[in-house]
Amino acid sequence: MRTDAANPRRAWQAWVMAAQINPSILSADFARLADEAKAVEGADWLHVDVMDNHFVPNLTLGVPVVESLARATDTPLDCHLMIEAPDRWAPQYVEAGASSVTFHVEAAAAPVRLAREIRAKGARASMALNPATPIEPYEDLLPELDMLLIMTVEPGFGGQAFLDIMLPKIRRTRELISKHGLQLWLQVDGGVSASTIERCADAGADVFVAGSAVYGAEDPAEAVRALRAQAEATTARASWACAH
Ligand code: DX5
Ligand code: ZN
């Protein structure tokens, strides 16, 4: 987050306008993860997709790889746990070096307790919603979270088409964040690219995961800069950001 501490009003504006880009290493070369992390050094976070072949039909990596990656890069790790029993496993990802840990509400037995445990261990707590999961039942939980992730594909694989039917949910979530005056980040994940990021930013997202759009580009670092510029230009015109 970029802020201007000397001027509270400008700090607020900077917070509203800032867009964060989180490249997903799911689309990177897993045999060269340290190099792939370096290739996107200007990114705000590195998005690490953990899949257990139960919550989603795919298998990626676990705690030991996150530990190694945390040692190999200065970019903070944003771990997205697409796993069963996150109540049991999520705290271990904080200990492994993740600065933000996202669990899926569909898999969590006690999301409030889990969010508090993640925060108590020193990481940002984040909760994810699958495409079929509405935000409305979770309005009262929002103050417990540092970030809410709205999936814009069914989780499990990179390179899927963006589900624009999720845009109304992004809008409604942004309205809830404003209504409660929360500084909650709103992340979107799945199919985010140069052709979809503006619709996400206009609807109210401010943290953007991009896998294939970054690692599929000839120059991944330039792709990050270009996506950020697009998102920030859209946010500057968006009604949700201008209302403040
Ligand atoms: C999908 C993962 C995403 C994935 C996004 O289940 O959670 O983070 O890497 O990849 P793209 O940006 O290619 O859709
Ligand atoms: Zn993800």
Question: What does this entry look like structurally?
Answer:
Its EC number is 5.1.3.1. One of its GO terms (molecular function) is D-ribulose-phosphate 3-epimerase activity. Belongs to the ribulose-phosphate 3-epimerase family. By secondary structure, the chain is α/β, with parallel strands linked by helices. Helices cover 38% and strands 17% of the residues. It has an eight-stranded parallel β-sheet. The longest helix has 18 residues. It starts with 7 loop residues before the first helix and ends with a helix.
Ions, cofactors, ligands: which are bound? D-xylitol-5-phosphate, zinc ion
Kindly estimate the percentage of residues that lie in beta strands according to DSSP.
15-25%
Largest sheet: 8 strands, parallel
**How many H/I helices?**
10
User: What is the number of beta strands?
Assistant: 8
* Widest beta sheet: strand line-up: 1-8-7-6-5-4-3-2
Q: Mean pLDDT, as a whole number?
A: 94
Strand-pairing-aware structural class:
alpha/beta
**Element string (H = helix, E = strand):** HEHEHEHEHEEHEHEHHH
Query: What is the radius of gyration computed over CA atoms, rounded to a whole number of angstroms?
Result: 17 Å
Q: How far apart lie the N and C ends?
A: 18 Å
General form: globular
Q: Report the uncertain regions.
A: 1-14
Percentage of helical residues?
25-40%
Pfam families: Ribul_P_3_epim
Protein name: Ribulose-phosphate 3-epimerase
EC number: 5.1.3.1
GO molecular function: D-ribulose-phosphate 3-epimerase activity; metal ion binding
List keywords for this structure.
alpha/beta, binds D-xylitol-5-phosphate, eight-stranded parallel β-sheet, binds zinc ion, 244 residues, single chain
